[in-house]
Amino acid sequence: MLDTARPPLYHRVAEVITVSEADRLAALERAGLVHPRAEAVTAPLFSSGGFFLAADKVQVKYEMLRAHLAEHLPVTAAAAAHGYSRAAFYLVAASFEQAGMAGLLDERRGRRGPVKLTPEIAAFLRSAPPASGAVLAGQVAERFGVVLHRRTIERVRGPR
Questions:
Q1: 8 A C-beta contact, residue 121 and residue 146
Q2: What is residue 49's predicted lDDT score, i.e. its pLDDT?
Q3: Cα(110)–Cα(17) distance, rounded to whole angstroms?
Q4: Residue 62 reports pLDDT greater than 70
Q5: CA 94/CA 81 separation, integer angstroms
Q6: DSSP letter assigned to residue 104
Q7: Helix and strand tally (H, E) in the chain?
Q8: What does pTM read for this prediction?
Q9: Largest CB tally within 10 Å, which of 65, 87, 101, 110?
């Protein structure tokens, strides 16, 4: 009889890399993911150290949601045990519902980009013949009805 069994298409290789708590904290710090109130986290999972780290903001947020949804802990208790307020819990829950795990990351603070400088205006400025920022500001105001500062225009045009 012939052996017709096919070899597996792949094989699993697992490698576990141990990272010290100091290295993990440094990585969290660089990424801006340190829980601002890590000392307020009293959930039992985070008391033993190891995998669960109270300073890991994303992990704490996830476990806070899990404690409420899977363990049926009241919102106020889950939030308090993880160093968050009840109001913050609802914000985290809404972000998680909307964006999944990415919703547990904090959004960048501040504006998301220039308010008045649209791609159309930027293209106009880059293609305009050489002129001062003040002259181009007047042209933008006339053509697009938007008032830009001359320095904004000079930054868009870059060094010439």
A1: yes
A2: 74
A3: 37
A4: yes
A5: 19
A6: G
A7: 7, 0
A8: 0.61
A9: 65
> Mind listing the pLDDT tens digit for each residue in 73-108?
999 999 999 999 999 999 999 999 999 999 999 876
Q: Are 117 and 148 in contact (CB under 8 A)?
A: yes
- Cβ–Cβ < 8 Å for 37, 83: yes
The first and second tokens of residue 23, run together, are: 């290295």
Residue 116, pLDDT score: 83
Give residue-wise pLDDT tens across range 132-151.
Answer: 989 999 999 999 999 999 89
Q: Rounded CA gap, 24 and 59, in Å?
A: 13
Cα 117–chain centre separation:
24
pLDDT bracket for residue 112 (50, 70, 90): low
Amino acid at 35: H
* Unique residue bearing structure tokens 């298409």: 9
Which amino acid type is present at position 16? V
Rounded to a whole number of angstroms, the distance between the first and last alpha carbons of the chain is 79
Q: Determine whether 48 is exposed, middle or buried from the number of CB atoms within 10 Å of its CB (0-12, 13-18, 19+).
A: exposed
